[in-house]
Design goal:
- The structure is a single chain.
- It contains 5 helices and no strands.
- α1 runs antiparallel to α3.
- The protein is mainly alpha-helical.
Amino acid sequence: MDDKKVLTLTHIFLVIIGIIFLASGIFTFVDPHTMGEALGIAPMNPSGETEIRATYGGLVVGSGLLVLSGLFHRLMTVAALAGTFFGAGGLVSTRIVIQAMDGFTINQGIVAAFELTMVAIAFLLLRAAMKRALV
């Protein structure tokens, strides 16, 4: 595939993942109870709300901004794809190990499949981006 097509695919991937991260992070920051329920966790006090907002809101918003920064410079593209690869890789690896220990659930399987897809795409695009960044 030529360099222009790879760059276009990379930008599409970064926009999709960046928007998903930003939207879920902002939603979690604004409404930690709904996201907490969806995740199977509940804040027991204001400190718990802060923890959900910071960890599942702020960190995910920051990740979304990192991913979107990859649209603006070749070196940031490498950083955005590497962050996605390692971040989603850590999530899916942990999710698979936990499912092996505690038993499979369809919801966790769906999330793991999405994360694994992100890892695979990020890896392929990262290889191409590193070549472009070194030129």
